[in-house]
Amino acid sequence: MTAVAPAEESGTARSLEVVSPDHEPPTGGAWWNPIHAVSRIARLPGEVARVPREIERRLAHQPLARLSLAGPRTARFAAGNITGDRTPGIPPARLTPSLLGHVIMDESIMALAVGPNRFPRRADYYRVADELARAHALFIENGWIDDPASFHQTPPPMEEPAVSRGWALGKRYERLWWPSRYEPHLGVPGTDRWLAFEANRTASAWVLRHRDRPRPWIVCIHGFGCGSPFMDLFSFRAAYLHEELGVNIAALVLPVHGARRPGRVNGEEFLGFEFMNSVHGLTQSLWDARRLLSWVRLQDPTGVGVFGISLGSMVSGLVAAFEPDLDLVLAGIPVVDFPGLIEHHAPRNLMMRSIENNIMDGTAQDVHRVVSPLAMPAVTPRPARAVFAGLGDRLATTDQARRLWEHWDKPETHWFQGNHVGYLWSDSVWRFVTTVLDERSLTA
After folding, report:
1. Which residues, including other chains, have CB under 8 Å from residue 383's CB and lie 6 or more apart?
2. 217-241: per-residue pLDDT in tens?
3. H-helix segments, 224-370
4. What is the tally of structural domains in the chain?
5. Are strands 3-10 and 13-19 parallel, antiparallel or unpaired?
6. What pLDDT sits at residue 34?
7. Could you give the C-alpha distances from 3 to 23, 49, 82, 428, in angstroms and in order?
8. Residue 299's domain is classified under what CATH number?
9. For residues 428 and 63, which has the higher predicted lDDT (pLDDT)?
10. Could you tell me how far CA 260 lies from the centroid of its own chain?
């Protein structure tokens, strides 16, 4: 067993060390990881330790220095496959040059994205910890942690939306607009901040449809940072689904994304250190998706499916816990556990400070049960569930897909040789998508 002990003060931030019972520093970490070498020296006491800590801090501020970690991390991925260090349920990957190129692409993205400019400040830890503590007490009092589905309210059917029209990638589409009307439960922390995002109060979706006869409909739910018709037409191969397979498409714009974003960075307010923002964001996403489904069902569909990508798969997983009459819920490269993803990607010092401040000590994990697809049984029938995931996915990680696959009673699944975005050009993925749509009579 290990214990958490405070380290020396450095600058304005207080860090933690993990120490073993005999007070010897841990020996874990790969010898070829440059950050590991720095962190070992940083365990030295007093003034001696402050020098390497300052070196580590300065290195972290250099994007190219962080980028150098992508190579060692890719080597670790390859070594794990060679030695058979695999999780049951995830098939072995073929270590081809293409796959390793995909892996290093994902690792490079993470190395550049996880920089000090995105790290929380000391006051952020205190504020986030306070919000989570109050949420935890409220959720326990109302029984929402034990019964996460009871946290979610049934939305009213969508009234006739406003309609505009647009053009992107050679496709003319309709744009639907309607008041979201999402209102959190009384007293949920972060409510005022979330409702202050004025543009987010209006929900939106873009639509491609045939008007000749009744056809199947697919509700598409995009990933983090997307939400514009230009991006989503491409990421869902909408022209192929609409023209070749003959389906109608209604693509939801997630909260604080696309035209709903309140700031310059698309989706920035959804996923980050503001843990209550992600609770509100996922709750509103489920609310808006169910309202869009209510409108789709008024269009005389011959069948209805939901197709989510990445963050959209997390929303699709939540939809599957509330909508029993869907013909398909397809989760692509799924994210299903946001605190788990933070734990996987966050630097060690950020994790230690989060534990010290009673954030990632189990509090955030408990609070996020109310928006976790893994905490609620799926009511969409098992034959209607399907998953695809990349064997080289280092962003959402293969383990998130495996956990959804197990929770969904091991439905039809396709593992492809690629990274998080590799599905875009994977022929095997789109053959799988076509097959699952065709087998459920969702093609025309």
Report:
1. 411, 440
2. 999 999 999 999 999 999 999 999 9
3. 229-235, 238-239, 275-296, 311-320, 338-345, 348-356, 363-367
4. 1
5. antiparallel
6. 40
7. 9, 20, 33, 47
8. 3.40.50.1820
9. 428
10. 18
